[in-house]
């Protein structure tokens, strides 16, 4: 089954917890702290595997959770870093953040890697918190939580040339006679249910990859028919080949067919109209094809090369393939995806950063405090140790949480909630 779009969940591994330990050896007085740091959590890394051609593997495995780093140990021994989780994806995979809609990675080359969910750093052991004023601290950090996100994977085939046209115009037949590809061929609409790829070689030994895409119909860009599922694959192609049934076997006007397909490409992505294109007048072995071709030439107002061919008898294919190879040599390298129109905003040191937390009042009267940085610090605090709790309170005070709660009217003894944990506000 050909699958070209899936949504998955990825989570980087949490960092290992830091250790609270002390050096206790014979004849070594005042040994001091000896707790090691936790190891780094594993990241979820996507790597391009050249042999893959579909996202089928993600259809049944949609959760990827990387392993946690090892906890720190006594005698200042650091925990082991976890090995990254490598997930194989086919070339042409675009990874989009489901929440923000931003493109995280565009993986096109064999062996190319991208970190999708970063693992958390290991927590620091009590050795790290030793100071002249507190030479034997009884505090350590938990590991940093790994990054978690939902992403959408979209596969856009990496083909140099894309065959487009209405159903049953002969795209699959054309691909089968110019390459070793064996697509399903039938005399009914939507025989092709998935894109097919084939390597084509010209008489002068130039080669390129050609894709046969499922037939388009009017309204495809809005989701009509099957072709709308595969319009994204045309974005990768550098040359577009319009295959037209010049024999008008289904009593359609060839010129109107051409205009309809052009309009569908334009409605889907305006940049597709900038690509070099070639018109293939197919089925020239049929009656009335020559007359329809003459009429088509008269109606065509643009300077696009037209090649009369017959995929069935293989007439005219050599000159067609040579022309496509010539167009590829001159075609520019189009961007694989549209860049954001807004300029990237650089945050300088003197600019005020976003607030690290937000305070709201819940229906039950509890003050909810939320924020990415605040929740990260909360998860890295070991609340089993009094010294760690006091350190967390100092961090909140330094972030301005106490002052912000007073401004919101918080009184002594009222409840404050962070994630699912509640605390009393103490003046």
Keywords:
427 residues; alpha/beta; 19% helix; 8 helices; 5-stranded mixed β-sheet; elongated; 6-stranded mixed β-sheet
Our count of helices gives 8
Count the beta strands: 18
Instruction: State the helical fraction.
Output: 10-25%
Kindly report how far apart the N and C termini lie: 64 Å
What overall form do the CA principal axes indicate?
Answer: elongated
Q: What is the N-to-C succession of helices and strands?
A: EEEEEEEEEHEEHEHEHEHEEHHHEE
Hey, roughly how much beta strand do the residues contain?
Answer: 15-25%
**Multimeric organization:** single chain
Low-confidence region ranges: 188-192, 219-227, 335-353
Protein name: GTPase Obg
Main location: cytoplasm
Pfam families: DUF1967, GTP1_OBG, MMR_HSR1
Family: Belongs to the TRAFAC class OBG-HflX-like GTPase superfamily. OBG GTPase family.
